[in-house]
Protein backbone atom coordinates (compact mmCIF):
# COMPACT_ATOMS: atom_id res chain seq x y z
CA UNK A 1 0.00 0.00 0.00
CA UNK A 2 1.19 3.49 -0.73
CA UNK A 3 1.52 5.47 2.47
CA UNK A 4 1.40 9.26 2.66
CA UNK A 5 4.45 10.05 4.73
CA UNK A 6 3.27 13.63 5.07
CA UNK A 7 0.02 12.45 6.67
CA UNK A 8 1.86 10.06 8.97
CA UNK A 9 4.29 12.78 10.04
CA UNK A 10 1.44 15.25 10.70
CA UNK A 11 -0.33 12.66 12.85
CA UNK A 12 2.95 11.85 14.56
CA UNK A 13 3.42 15.53 15.41
CA UNK A 14 -0.21 15.93 16.56
CA UNK A 15 0.20 12.99 18.92
CA UNK A 16 3.67 14.19 19.97
CA UNK A 17 5.22 10.81 19.16
CA UNK A 18 8.83 10.07 18.38
CA UNK A 19 9.52 7.48 15.70
CA UNK A 20 10.59 5.10 18.45
CA UNK A 21 7.32 5.55 20.37
CA UNK A 22 5.19 5.28 17.22
CA UNK A 23 6.91 2.05 16.24
CA UNK A 24 6.41 0.73 19.77
CA UNK A 25 2.67 1.58 19.81
CA UNK A 26 2.19 0.17 16.30
CA UNK A 27 4.10 -2.97 17.28
CA UNK A 28 6.58 -2.64 14.43
CA UNK A 29 10.32 -2.11 14.52
CA UNK A 30 11.88 1.33 14.18
CA UNK A 31 13.70 0.02 11.13
CA UNK A 32 10.41 -1.02 9.53
CA UNK A 33 8.99 2.45 10.19
CA UNK A 34 12.11 4.02 8.71
CA UNK A 35 11.85 1.81 5.61
CA UNK A 36 8.18 2.72 5.18
CA UNK A 37 9.03 6.41 5.38
CA UNK A 38 11.81 5.97 2.85
CA UNK A 39 9.96 3.72 0.37
CA UNK A 40 6.46 5.12 1.02
CA UNK A 41 4.95 1.65 0.86
CA UNK A 42 4.16 -1.26 3.14
CA UNK A 43 1.95 -4.30 3.54
CA UNK A 44 -1.73 -3.70 4.30
CA UNK A 45 -1.38 -5.25 7.76
CA UNK A 46 1.45 -2.87 8.61
CA UNK A 47 -0.54 0.12 7.37
CA UNK A 48 -3.40 -1.01 9.60
CA UNK A 49 -1.07 -1.17 12.61
CA UNK A 50 0.16 2.37 11.99
CA UNK A 51 -3.38 3.68 11.53
CA UNK A 52 -4.49 1.94 14.71
CA UNK A 53 -1.62 3.58 16.62
CA UNK A 54 -3.12 6.95 15.65
CA UNK A 55 -6.71 5.75 16.15
CA UNK A 56 -7.62 6.62 12.56
CA UNK A 57 -8.93 4.64 9.60
CA UNK A 58 -6.24 3.17 7.39
CA UNK A 59 -7.51 5.23 4.45
CA UNK A 60 -6.50 8.36 6.39
CA UNK A 61 -2.81 7.54 5.94
CA UNK A 62 -2.87 6.35 2.33
CA UNK A 63 -1.92 8.42 -0.67
CA UNK A 64 -4.85 9.67 -2.73
CA UNK A 65 -4.11 7.14 -5.50
CA UNK A 66 -5.26 4.25 -3.30
CA UNK A 67 -8.61 5.73 -2.30
CATH superfamily: lambda repressor-like DNA-binding domains
User: Taking Cα atoms only, what radius of gyration do you get, to the nearest Å?
Assistant: 10 Å
Class by alpha and beta content: mainly alpha
Q: Which CATH C-level class is it?
A: Mainly Alpha
Number of strands: 0
Helix % is 55-70%
Named CATH topology: 434 Repressor (Amino-terminal Domain)
What are the low-pLDDT stretches, counting only 5+ consecutive residues below 50?
Answer: none
Separate helix tally: 4
**Mean pLDDT over the residues:** 94
SSE topology string:
HHHH
Would you give an account of this structure?
By secondary structure, the chain is mainly α. It has one domain: lambda repressor-like DNA-binding domains (434 Repressor (Amino-terminal Domain), Orthogonal Bundle), CATH 1.10.260. It is 58% helix and 0% strand. The chain has four helices and no strands. The longest helix is centred in the C-terminal third of the chain and has 11 residues, at 44-54.
Which structural traits does this protein have?
67 residues, mainly alpha, 434 Repressor (Amino-terminal Domain), 58% helix, globular
Write the layout of secondary structure elements.
Elements: H1 5-14, H2 19-26, H3 30-39, H4 44-54
Give a quick precis of the structure.
The chain has 67 residues and is mainly α.
Amino acid sequence: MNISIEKVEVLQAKHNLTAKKLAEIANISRQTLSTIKKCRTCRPTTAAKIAKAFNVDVTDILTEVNR
